[in-house]
Amino acid sequence: MRYSEMKAFEKERAARQARGQASERPLLLGAGKLIWWSVLLLVMLGLMLVGCASQAVYRDTGVAMTTQGKIDSGRYQGLWYEIARFPNSFEEGCVAVTAEYAQNPDGTIRVLNTCRQGTLDGPVEVAEGVATVTNADGDRLEVTFVPWLPFAKGDYWILATDYQVAVIGTPSGSVGWVLARSPSLPADKLAAALDVLAANGYDTAQIYLTPQAPR
Question: Is the separation of the CB atoms in 202 and 58 below 8 Å?
Answer without folding.
Answer: yes
